[in-house]
Amino acid sequence: MKKMRRSERIVDLTRQFLENPHTLIPLTYFAECYQAAKSSISEDIVIVNEMFQSEGIGELVTSAGAAGGVKYIPAISIKEAKESMIKICQELSNNERLLPGGYLYMLDIIGTPKWLKTIGRMFASIFAKEEIDVIVTVETKGIPIAHATASYLNVPVLVANKDSKVTEGSVVTINYISGSTKRIQTMSLAKRALREGANVLIIDDFMKAGGTIKGMINLLQEFNAQIKGIGVFVEVDGAQEKLVEDYISLARLTEVDEKEKNIKVELGNYFKEG
């Protein structure tokens, strides 16, 4: 790469960090890339870090030593997250979104890049301090949210299927009871998809009683996986006992009247605790 002016370096440094979250990049790489002294690069990194923190988009973490470098940790401020989720909750509170069984129509929210990126950034910020190896979700609507979160954590996504597929090879399959319908269902994951003892973040789009998430936990136990966190986009608030306790929700469906078609969506437990 040709030698750059300082302003150009700072712009390109910003680009590289944003494109490679949670990736340790050695100072020597930048020094060779920009044909500049490490001391100059370090000064540039301080400027970029100050901008990241002032804008609430994360921080740069520096580690010393021969194997050291700089890592960008994406984040979102509580203020920005709350403002965004209030808007999403207002959208979700539209009575026309109510589906049979007390479910919500959310595909347009999940399918809007702006909202999807914001949701993924929220989950990535919440679980940023955990050593996540992989994100696990179940087909189908949780997949976009899982991938949005993975893009900020820089980890792969695994999808637990309700029906095993020939292309997956040998699979591990478990039966679980759906918390809302009380029906016995199956869930499977390819044996070669997840290494033994991996650190896993579970992401799901909607939770009533938590039967599906409980099923994912049981499935992951077959791999001796370590559950480092559970993130739920929308949970249903009510008298029904949850099958999982330790989870973070971004929104909460607090009022459902199928007869009158009245629904109300409020902020989830993440904001209540924050």
Automatic annotation (TrEMBL):
GO terms for molecular function: DNA binding. The keyword Transcription regulation applies. It comes from the Bacteria. InterPro entries: PRTase-like, PRTase_dom, Pur/Pyrimidine_PRTase, PuR_N, PurR_Bsub, WH-like_DNA-bd_sf, WH_DNA-bd_sf. Residues 5-74 form the Bacterial purine repressor N-terminal domain. Residues 113-248 form the Phosphoribosyltransferase domain. Keywords: DNA-binding, Transcription, Transcription regulation. One of its GO terms (biological process) is negative regulation of purine nucleobase metabolic process. Homodimer. Belongs to the purine/pyrimidine phosphoribosyltransferase family. PurR subfamily. This is Pur operon repressor. It comes from Vulcanibacillus modesticaldus.
